[in-house]
Amino acid sequence: MTATLVKEAGPPTAAGPAPGPRQRRRRGRIIALLFVFPAVLLLGALVVYPVLFSVGRSFFDASGNNFVGAENYTEMFQDPATLKAIRNTTIWVVVAPALLTGLGLILAVLVEKVRWATAFKLLMFLPMAVSFLAAGIIFRLAYEEDPDKGVLNAAMVSVHDAFEDAASYPTARAREGQGIVKDKDGSYRTGAAVSPGDTVHLGLVGVLPDDLPGGAEPAHEAAARKAGADELSGVVYLDFTPGGGGEQGRVDQRESGLPEMKVEAVRDGRTVATTTTGSDGSFRFTGLADGSYEVKLPAKNFAPPYDGISWLGPTLVTPAIIGAYLWIWTGFAMVLIGAGLATLPRDALEAARMDGANEWQIFRRITVPLLAPVLTVVFVTLVINVMKVFDLVYIIAPGPVQEDATVLATQMWLVSFGGGNNQGLGSALGVLLLLLVVPAMVFNVRRFRRSQR
Description:
Blueprint: H1 21-57, H2 71-76, H3 80-111, H4 117-125, H5 132-142, H6 151-163, E1 173-174, E2 180-182, E3 188-190, E4 199-205, H7 220-224, E5 231-238, E6 262-267, E7 270-276, E8 282-286, E9 294-297, H8 317-342, H9 346-354, H10 359-370, H11 372-387, H12 391-396, H13 402-405, H14 408-416, H15 423-452
Parallel strand pairs: 4-5
Antiparallel strand pairs: 1-4, 2-3, 3-9, 5-8, 6-7, 6-9
């Protein structure tokens, strides 16, 4: 008999209850917190803790042992260097973001009409790849006052000399007791009156033979020539014989004339004739009326050469550094504004053109209003950035004018670590800088949130 064994099945296993919506939300929050925790930890260690520590440190003295309350904040607004830093920071905030936003807007609009727009944007954005340290060194060299080193002054000297003749003999001077008198304005004149028919010898020293203009010839033959009855002539020469010898006040055989020297004939304090010396230093006035004259060498013959502008002097150091900042950040502003420009509705622009509006009207009444949110974000972002500028100011400004260019960030460093060694006052400056930056950051965050909605 075949027996069929049937295995009895046990009772079905009961499944657990499905998690409710509240449990799922709680589990999601826990997972989210686990992912966020490393970032929160870093934020607390690198941002929150330093801020709280700086706030607390600002209430202690330089040693950090004695509580002084608000004394650091009081001292901060009484220190002339800090007040100058606040003034310079205000200049930065007012000038730099406005210029950058304007330049970025203009370039973004113009680039749209350029065939190689991408290449142009790349070139404009390249300075952003340069560190502020390297940019500071570049502009420190460019702003050098010596035209042989500073490229800006080299260009300015070239342009200046192209339109105005440089002084011929800035180091020349007359010997005392040789009949030549120096006036208060730096010019030289004959001490005794001369008349037509006279010959005048004007000897100068202080010019190295190697500094003589090319083509200068000996003055001896020109000095030996006699003036005509109706002319006043003479020679301007270097009263120095190479190798020694010679006689002071006399034109010796090997003494060179001074060419291209401006010479004036003066009567009763008024210049009546002007000429220029030849290659041998000779000059000649003809057609003069009878009477007494003075022969004058104008001061512009001896003026120091034009060396350009003192870019890093106390007056221009802050605008010069702002110029370096513009070079770095203009590409950033242009690219951001260009991205906003690419999203503008083209139908509105085309409709305006069809209605007869010119490009300036379209730019002023359509493009700028529609770009206002983007322009505001760019402007506020740059405001936050310029408040923290440090590298360019510290590197470009020379030591003697460092105080004239200082901003809050550099002043905070100088007070704390750059010789002041007062970290209590430095912390107070840091808190002030934070308080100035926070409103701009809050405004920017709110703008982002509104744009996302």
